Amino acid sequence: MKKVRASVKGINAWVPPDLLTNADLEKMVDTTDEWILTRTGIKERHILRGNQRPTSEMGANAVKGLLEKTNTNPEEIDLLICATVSPDVLYPATANIISDKTGIKNAFSFDLNAACSGFLFALVTASKYIESGTHKKVIVVGADKMSYLVDYTQRETCILFGDAGAAVLLEPADDGTGIIDSILHADGSGWPFLHQKAGGSLLPSSHETINERKHFVYQEGQTVFKFAVKGMADVAAEIMEKNNLCSEDVAYLVPHQANLRIIDATAKRMGVSREKVMINIERYGNTTNATIPLCLWEWEKKLKKGDNIILAAFGGGFTWGSVLLKWSYNS
Predict the structure, then answer these.
(1) For 159-181, what is each residue's pLDDT tens digit?
(2) Which of 128, 170, 181, 233 is 20 to 30 A from 156 in CA distance terms?
(3) pLDDT higher than 80, residue 236
């Protein structure tokens, strides 16, 4: 009997039209376009401006486009998972809200938070429902409105993040395509170096936490960079070795778009040339859970059925991982 795997049958993304450029940031904090570009590789990022415009708006727009693109009835969807660190509200899950906005009525849905590795964790989780035979059509959303979590008086973090949403449709396949393998890791001792200080049960919201600006991203940049370079590069190389792949066997590396230097280090560790690396950080910045599917969406027309694609990410927690995906269709 042929092995049934979770195969990507479609992908779509949605980004808000408004831009925040490095030139704009030069007017807000003590920085320059050259300084940002040299250290991160980012030139501009998309921002979801306006009141009462939450993460679910981007996720729902991505899902609506995905359903239309794949000619899928929303009532056929069995499960929707949303990877996010910027939920609309603490509860219910943003996945529930996205399902409601898109007419998905016969699925259960939930959020998954693994910081910037969340999309990979959600993708692997979704694949198990497909492989078990209990679910036929599963949507995985990666969406974040990072602009609401960023302190635009802190140049170290405000230059990094943008807003976006993306979604993939998974279905069973026995033709050898789909999610072939995955390696996921977490090290909870890394949480103090990248987190949001207030707003949870550890430090509930109060006038003091708001006045002290503790509801924004806190990051010890050098520490996170050091762990990210090693973690993402090692796990990407590990999945190649585990599956007996050499650099010539890999069609593309799809790295989390956090920092261009981390991306380059990962490609070097794998022995993969720049031409095989999906990079769009210059135009979007770090959209957290949307970065990997956003890359796949932009490169979709270049992908061919049977291509070996390695996805790799590193995030707060610390969390990190890699996925070996064999592409399932020609665009």
Answers:
(1) 999 999 999 999 999 999 999 99
(2) 233
(3) yes
116 an active-site residue? yes
Active-site residue, selected from the candidate residues 12, 46, 61, 116: 116
295 is catalytic: no
Domain range for residue 269? 180-326
Residue 3 identity: K
Q: How far, CA to CA in Å, does 71 sit from each of 63, 66, 67, 219?
A: 12, 8, 6, 42
**Phi, psi of 73, rounded to the nearest 5 degrees:** -75, 130
Average pLDDT, the chain: 97
82 annotated active-site? no
- Catalytic option among 256, 259, 289, 295: 256
Do 37 and 82 have their domain in common? yes
Residue of 22, 286, 289, 295 with catalytic role: 286
Instruction: State if pTM tops 0.85.
Output: yes
- Sequence-distant (6+) residues with CB within 8 A of 317 are 114, 115, 117, 186, 187, 188, 190, 191, 194
